[in-house]
Amino acid sequence: xxxxxxxxxxxxxxxxxxxxxxxxxxxxxxxxxxxxxxxxxxxxxxxxxxxxxxxxxxxxxxxxxxxxxxxxxxxxxxxxxxxxxxxxxxxxxxxxxxxxxxxxxxxxxxxxxxxxxxxxxxxxxxxxxxxxxxxxxxxxxxxxxxxxxxxxxxxxxxxxxxxxxxxxxxxxxxxxxxxxxxxxxxxxxxxxxxxxxxxxxxxxxxxxxxxxxxxxxxxxxxxxxxxxxxxxxxxxxxxxxxxxxxxxxxxxxxxxxxxxxxxxxxxxxxxxxxxxxxxxxxxxxxxxxxxxxxxxxxxxxxxxxxxxxxxxxxxxxxxxx
Length: 321
Ligand SMILES: Nc1ncnc2c1ncn2[C@@H]1O[C@H](COP(=O)(O)OP(=O)(O)OP(=O)(O)O)[C@@H](O)[C@H]1O
Ligand SMILES: [Mg+2]
Known about the structure:
Helices cover 34% and strands 23% of the residues. It has helices spanning 47-54, 82-88, 100-103, 110-122, 127-140, 146-149, 159-170, 189-206, 217-223, 241-246, 251-258, 261-264, 298-302; strands spanning 5-16, 19-31, 36-40, 63-72, 75-76, 93-96, 177-181, 209-213, 226-231, 234-240, 308-309, 315-316. Mean pLDDT is 91; it is low at 263-269. The two termini are 30 Å apart. The chain is an alpha/beta fold and 321 residues long. The relative contact order is 0.14. Bound molecules: adenosine-5'-triphosphate and magnesium ion. Magnesium ion is lined by residues 47-48, 181.
């Protein structure tokens, strides 16, 4: 089976005034058709940069690939031109973000905005056909009174409804992969649960692959069958959701879970992980986590641990775990 998406030892840096900021360091990851992967890790660890790499939204420069490959449906994404991307973005890969209001135009009706997306995807189309498709998409994301919604404006919708409209737009071109970057972070808890249920439902109905990024492990666990944990631009552990939550093996994953009272019964502090995230202008040699790790020894300071098999479907990058 060939993967839908495959990153192979992908390395990315940003050119800054102070030097090369080594943001992603050897990311290897595969995603199958219809698979759901959660991406978690502390702020600044590179989740959004990874997502934007996959959908070609990083400004290059300052971003620069240092090595590795990203393949989607067998195609080398790093070699794509902006014209190639226009055929991929929205059609094969779509993305939704945290704050729907940033992406909706306040002075245009929902019908106009979703219609614009449909016309771009189809390179035209008559008014009735575009309207019918708009209603179909709004119904797909389970918005009530889809036809009535077309004449309304973003400010007349709740946050949850706006996020659904954004999801409908993202699905207009029937993509195979949806990337959701903190899709529920800006929403109330009850609305969050509804949007998570919708994502689950879309995955099942459309056989959609999803990469979902969130600070909220519970939210990721509600949608994704697999979770990858990132630390300072590396993937430290990648395992089926239940396994990762119940039997985490990497010291960083363990610390992260211990910090989450609702999931692991911890007390809400990053206990077991003293120190702070490293400066990526001069990342630590060897394992990037070693300065904060209780298990670190000479080998960890010297030799970068590769992501290796640690049981069925379980990968981890640690010399000791
Ligand atoms: N355009 C840019 N130029 C320079 N550095 C950047 C740029 N974009 C991101 N970075 C840096 O890359 C690192 C990773 O950023 P990223 O936004 O991927 O983090 P994140 O894991 O998504 O964090 P958060 O959870 O806060 O969203 C950060 O240190 C950030 O400062
Ligand atoms: Mg982010």
